Amino acid sequence: MNATPKDLAKLVFSKLKRAKNTALQPPVAVLTTLFENLFFTSLKTEEGQLIKVTVTLISSANPDPNPPKKKDAQRWNCIHFEEKIPFTVKNMVKLSKAADPWSTSLAVDYNEANELFIWGLIDQSFHYQSFINYESTYNPEQPGLFQSTINDVGNIHVMLDYELIANLKQNTLISNYVNVFAKGPVRESLNNHSDNYQASVRQHFIDELGADVLDEWDGYIGNVISRSICRILIRMQDYQHGGAFVITPDTEAGLSIKHRLSYDRLFKAIVNFIKFDIASFKHTETIMNEYIDLDQDTLPSFLYLSESVAETDKNETSDELKGAIMFIASLSCIDGLVVLSPDLEVKSFGTVIKNVRPPEQVYISPQAVVDERRLVAVSPAHYGTRHRSMFSYCWHNPGSLGFVVSQDGDIRAITKVGDKLVMWENIKVQQFIKSKRLFRPNQLHTF
Question: Taking the model in full, what pTM does it have?
Answer without folding.
Answer: 0.90
